[in-house]
Design goal:
This protein has about 210 residues and is an all-alpha fold. It is built from six helices and no strands.
Length: about 210
Amino acid sequence: MVGSFHVSILVHLLFIAITTLVLVWLLHFREGVAFNSSNKAKIFNLHPLLMTIGFVLVSGEAIMIYKSAPGKQRSLKVVHLLLHLVALATGILGIVTVFKFKKEEGLPNMYTLHSWLGISAICSFGLQYILGFFAYFFPGAEMYTRASLLPWHRFIGMVIFLLSVGTALLGLTQYFQFLGLFRSQEALIVNFTGLLLFLFSVFVALSRILPRYS
């Protein structure tokens, strides 16, 4: 039988594959990334880089950490907290870069479904992080309160994760159409990135419902 530990290995491999595809896409096909540049496309390219690798993939690893890594509960809780902090920080920076790009290009903000869902995801993620920090890390709620909150903490966390994946897929589709890629090597990379992101989310969710070993 397959357990969550075995599924987590596949998730790690998907993490590497998606990261590789995103880096090849942005560095080879899209001219690279930069926070400040006369080439404004480089500023925009930071957005998919940070949101895909930093926000989506790292948060997926944080969700899985209790099932994928050995160690004491307290140690795993700290890693879970730190990975989510990295995801939140890169997510915020990713939002900042796209606002910066649009401001410098004189483009309007917040008019697409992708942008609405993206802001919803990052705000929900931040609120979930703050509540989780105070309830489970410091100062920590009473044992009974933590136990009663835990199913909701897990459920809402998974909803936010799936929302972030859906938002990323919507963003890839939107950018694909904007660039007019059609049938090309770059189009294949973007499509495979989206497909692997979907599989990543499926296996992260599966790791949460399977026992650690079977």
